[in-house]
Design goal:
Strand order of the largest sheet of chain B: 6-7-8-3-9-10
Helix content of chain B: 25-40%
Number of domains of chain A: 4
Oligomer: heterodimer
Shape of chain B: globular
Strand content of chain B: 25-35%
Number of domains of chain B: 1
CATH architecture of chain B: 3-Layer(aba) Sandwich
Structural class of chain A: alpha+beta
Structural class of chain B: alpha/beta
Largest sheet of chain B: 6 strands, mixed
Number of helices of chain A: 23
CATH topology of chain B: Rossmann fold
Distance between the termini of chain B: 21 Å
Radius of gyration of chain A: 34 Å
CATH class of chain B: Alpha Beta
Strand content of chain A: 15-25%
Largest interface: A-B, 30 and 30 residues
CATH superfamily of chain B: P-loop containing nucleotide triphosphate hydrolases
Order of helices and strands of chain B: EEEHEEHEHHHEHEHEE
Chain lengths: 831, 224
């Protein structure tokens, strides 16, 4: 209790302010970043679940085993079956090959269906969100089906043996993005009507989906059930997780998550630096007290135990307070940005709290304890003689402790070795550069400062006289600035990368199967509407018939639909934009003269099909057979919404086979009827509509971007704390000197001028040195975490020193104002 | 009470070995008082530090209460200081975050004294500061701060009190009052007093006087 009493008295004496606020803010920043990150993460996961209309889906070519449904009921997991197929629907003499989707009660398990009774409306007031599908006997249809069949709401359409009453227009299905294959207009019907319709017979081309979502048994129950279902799957079934549901959204979310991690990690390191500086400051103020205690006969062990206990109390109390402040902070931030972040954020779990507490205690262990460690060794003689001072634990040893503490925190926090290494390497490089170059700069300043005016001369010689302190301050400043730069650069490049997704005219429709004789007509229709395509691509439809001379087996056909159906084969001279070779060589490095055609495969598909470089594929195009050999695999960029091909050949090989054309283009909502006109005139053209899914991607990406901005602000505040801690490090000495100068009659201008020059010079140097570390760390992070190409960032070399000079100069002068506002005696007395 | 035989102190500097004290001898009985005087740099404070067990001599021995503190390790000397010794310093050494009462009570609390605050209040009353107990050092004058330091030193009921230029930072009038207080309390508590001073009238009030010059013991004897 004595330790607690001493701590409270020290707190009251305001000696603890800096250290406790550093601790509270460190914990608060890490906690609030973690809470925000986790809540945004959970929101994103929920959002991506809605892309599946479930938490997990099994897609299958066979009917769903009733056992799965029973087991789901037993384990209290929600489930629903969905069946999709193409079928003709009729109204009088009109007919249309529609995309039918039969949904069971409970659909959608996640997300909502949006429906309306006003076809083609985009008025949000007229659109209703519901979490159920059509009742038995009803059909909800795509707006464009109405003109296609010449019907109105209330009419009955024929499907197989039954009639369904069209009651609603479907505006959006949560899981519409999952299938690019939906070609005809959507007809949504109730699963229970299927049998009576009599259209599904053994052998029908249908896709079964089994939707599952967390139910009364909660997350654990759902996890158990997911494990069970995984064991039930065979080659007909494919498990789809929310992440796989929509590749481009998943990418943006993934990058968003990684950025949150980066932001949090930067917060952790900044917090560590702030605490290290504050602890250094605190320990320096304690040596006299320890000498006094020891002169009273308090043993070194007792002194150590007293300080340990105080540190522990400080750690626990500071961390608890930090957790509370952090929680409040996250709530305020969420409230402040509610306009930007319209998705409702679920509550966070335990992890952010544990992370916050661990940050507090580990930072204390890594930074405060090493800073206080030498205190018990202080000689009691110091009460008589000022020159007797104990040597603190070496900076190297303390640095190592700090690095170990921060590295463990980073690893625990990010669970990512590359990120942790990049941040540590960036920081270490900055610190080493600061020590080496900083010292040289200070020396140069002292030499050349002599030839300048009095303010510069005094400032330069002060900086040199206090060189070890100046260097520590500079490490603090440059470390904080480097970390902030890392954040800013990564944030900017991510937002740039996503910008196309936020662009209003990103392609949202694909036109495929356009025959060569139709091409001119389609082009004209598109240009009459003043729309632009992403360019026309030719393709040939072909099947794989043999692999390495062996016929495609039943097993292979069952395993992957690419073995069953016609594939789109295209050709190009150059590697298309956004494609990257992952294995093998591109055409320019190959001998193209042989009989066997080279083919380049999308790498994920190659993996699924079990094909690798050198494998030979026999293709059949309209009965004509040719051989091809896999010469390369490519990764594709699905984000750019331009046509991508799984199979690419060199020019000059496929041109003679019957070909069709395709393109992608942006069709604004008000010109959506173009699709109907087009289909009426060219019934064989297929239109893939991605407008709804793109709208959702855009919403999510803009939410992720907003989340990013919030984080950046939060981390920025942590950076300012570090600067503040570093500035206050030398303040008592500076105030004392300023008070003496003031006593001797120096003007306010001279005193503030010296501080301004000193701090600005420190800031500018730190900013410059920070750019070195930041550039290195960013190179690593972009390469290993975000898969972005290396690029230099000239602006940080300019903005860094400028901003740092301004900020540090302003902080320093603000802090020193006391010296010229208060009478010198008061300043000295209060030190 | 204090037995000093042949203590010397040398320190090694970049310019060679420097002798700070040379073969000092001293004997002081319980309840007696000693003034160590001499010009600046004569080794007064070094001697005081060694006598109080805050520092070790290069050779020779010091016994306090019959215990040879030069033969002990730092822990042993700390224990002796805790039982026997009290200090008053030239620069007061009050903790700025503690009130006058808490400053006096702190060493008692650290010794586990449950009555620390009451004892501290009693001694503050004896130095005439009962109306200033809740004031912080920065709110007290120099003389008042030194009175708090004196109260703190006596509150632990030391058998030997070491004072390092106790009035060196105070004006003559205030210094006199502190001296009166120091000697009155010393008399009432029966403490052995060792003080370092420049002031002749203060030295004159002590039973014995040792004059140091350049680390040499010039004379020791009755102050009168």
């Amino acid at each position: 209790m004595q330790a607690l009493k001493m701590l409270l008295r020290t707190w009251r004496g305001r000696q603890l302010s800096l250290i406790i606020w550093s601790l509270v803010l460190a914990v608060a920043v890490v906690t609030s970043v973690s809470i925000l990150a986790e809540r945004i993460e959970r929101a994103l996961t929920a959002e991506s679940s809605s892309f599946l209309a479930a938490d997990l889906v099994v897609r299958s070519s066979r009917a769903i085993d009733p056992l799965w449904i029973q087991e789901a009921e037993l384990q209290q997991v929600r489930s629903a079956r969905v069946l999709s197929f193409a079928s003709m629907v009729y109204y009088d003499a009109n007919m249309h090959l529609a995309s039918i989707k039969a949904v069971e009660k409970g659909y959608p398990l996640k997300g909502v269906l949006r429906r309306t009774t006003s076809p083609f409306t985009s008025d949000i007031e007229l659109i209703e969100e519901v979490d159920f599908g059509p009742a038995a006997g009803e059909a909800w249809v795509d707006a464009r089906l109405l003109p296609l069949l010449d019907i109105e709401l209330g009419d009955e359409i024929e499907l197989g043996e039954i009639r369904l009453k069209v009651t609603q227009v479907v505006v959006e299905e949560p899981d519409s993005g999952g299938t690019y294959g939906a070609i005809g207009a959507r007809v949504l019907m109730n699963y229970s009507d299927l049998e009576a319709a009599g259209i599904i017979v053994p052998g029908s081309r249908v896709t079964h989906r089994f939707l599952m979502a967390e139910g009364a048994s909660g997350a654990d129950g759902f996890a158990d059930y997911s494990d069970w279902i995984r064991d039930q799957l065979d080659i007909h079934d494919r498990l789809i997780t929310p992440d796989e549901a929509q590749a481009s959204v998943a990418d943006a979310m993934d990058e968003g998550r990684r950025f949150l991690l980066l932001a949090g990690s930067v917060g952790v390191v900044l917090a560590g630096i702030a605490l290290a500086l504050a602890s250094h400051h605190f320990a320096a103020g304690q040596t006299q007290q320890v000498a006094l205690l020891k002169s009273w006969g308090i043993s070194a062990n007792r002194v150590r135990s007293l300080y340990m206990q105080q540190s522990l109390w400080l750690g626990v109390a500071g961390s608890m307070l930090g957790l509370l402040v952090g929680y409040g902070f996250s709530e305020i931030l969420i409230y402040a940005v509610r306009e930007w972040l319209p998705i409702s954020l679920p509550m966070a779990g335990l992890r952010p709290w544990i992370t916050g507490m661990a940050t507090g205690l580990l930072c204390l262990g890594g930074f405060t304890l090493p800073a206080l460690w030498h205190l018990p060794a202080q000689s009691p003689l110091a009460v008589l003689r000022q020159d007797v001072q104990v040597k603190p634990v070496s900076s190297v040893a303390r640095g190592l402790f700090g690095v170990v503490a921060v590295a463990s925190l980073l690893l625990w926090y990010s669970n990512n070795v590359y990120l942790s290494l990049a941040i540590l390497a960036g920081f270490a490089l900055t610190a080493v550069a600061t020590i080496l170059i900083g010292l040289a700069l200070l020396r140069a300043g002292k030499t050349y400062g002599q030839k300048m005016g009095s303010v510069w001369r005094l400032a330069a010689s002060n900086l040199w006289r206090r060189k070890s302190q100046s260097i520590i301050q500079m490490v603090g400043f440059s470390g904080a600035i480097a970390l902030l730069m890392i954040m800013a650069v990564v944030r900017t490049s991510l937002i740039d990368e996503w910008r196309w997704q936020l662009a209003d005219d990103a392609p949202n429709h694909f036109l495929i199967n356009v025959a060569p004789y139709e091409l001119e007509g389609v082009r004209t229709m598109v240009s009459e509407q003043n729309l632009e395509t992403a360019g026309w691509y030719s393709m040939v439809r072909g099947r794989m018939t043999q692999i390495n001379g062996q016929d495609i087996s039943e097993e292979q056909r069952d395993r992957h639909e690419s073995f069953r159906r016609e594939l789109n084969l295209s050709w190009t001279k150059d590697l298309p934009e956004g494609n990257q070779l992952t294995a093998g060589e591109w055409w320019d490095k190959l001998d193209l003269s042989g009989d066997i055609a080279p083919v380049s495969l999308e790498d994920q598909l190659a993996g699924e099909l079990g094909l690798s470089i050198g494998d030979q594929i026999t293709f059949s195009v309209g009965g004509l057979v040719f051989e091809a050999r896999v010469t390369s695999t490519r990764s594709l960029n699905w984000d750019n919404m331009t046509p991508n091909f799984y199979f690419l050949f060199p020019e000059g090989l496929l041109e003679n086979y019957p070909r069709t054309n395709m393109t992608s283009l942006y069709i604004p909502p008000q010109q959506k009827l173009l699709v109907n006109d087009l289909l009426r005139k060219y019934p064989t053209v297929q239109v893939i509509e991605l407008d709804k899914i793109i709208e959702r991607i855009r919403t999510i990406v803009s939410q992720v971007t907003s989340g990013l901005e919030v984080m950046t602000l939060l981390i920025l505040s942590c950076g300012v704390l570090v600067m503040f801690a570093a500035v206050s490090l030398s303040m008592s000495e500076r105030l004392q000197e300023s008070a003496i100068l003031r006593t001797l009659g120096s003007s306010r201008r001279l005193i503030l001028g010296i501080q301004l020059v000193e701090f600005t010079v420190l800031g500018v140097m730190a900013g410059l040195l920070a750019a070195i570390g930041a550039e290195a760390a960013v190179a690593m992070i972009q390469r290993f975490m975000f898969d972005l190409p290396f690029a230099m960032h000239p602006w940080i070399w300019l903005v860094g020193p400028l901003a740092a000079g301004l900020l540090v100069g302003a902080l320093g002068v603000g802090y020193s104002r006391k010296a010229v506002v208060q009478p010198p005696l008061e300043v000295l007395k209060n030190l | 009470m204090i037995q000093v035989s042949n203590i010397s102190k040398q320190v090694t500097t970049t310019e060679g070995t420097l002798s700070i004290l040379h073969e000092i001898n001293l004997s002081l009985a319980a309840g007696e008082s000693l003034a160590i005087v001499g010009p600046s740099g004569s080794g007064k404070s070094t001697l005081l530090g060694i006598l109080a067990g805050l520092d070790l001599p290069s050779s020779g021995s010091v016994s306090l209460n019959g215990q040879d503190i030069t033969a002990m390790d730092e822990e042993g000397r700390a224990a002796v200081r805790a039982q026997t010794v009290g200090f008053v310093f030239q620069s007061f050494h009050l903790l700025p975050g503690l009130t006058a009462l808490e400053n006096v009570a702190l060493p008692l609390e650290l010794q586990g004294d449950k009555q620390a605050l009451q004892t501290a209040a009693y001694y503050l009353e004896r130095v005439g500061l009962d109306h200033r107990t809740s004031h912080y050092p920065r709110q007290l004058s120099g003389g008042e701060q030194q009175r708090v330091a004196v109260a703190r030193a006596f509150a632990c009921r030391p058998t030997i009190l070491f004072a390092d230029e106790p009035t060196g930072n105070l004006d003559t009038g205030t210094g006199e009052k502190i001296n009166d207080l120091l000697f009155d309390l010393n008399k009432e508590e029966g403490t052995t007093l060792v003080l370092v001073t420049h002031e002749h009238n203060l030295a004159a009030r002590c039973g014995q006087r040792m004059v140091l010059a350049a680390g040499q013991q010039v004379s020791t004897g009755s102050a009168a």
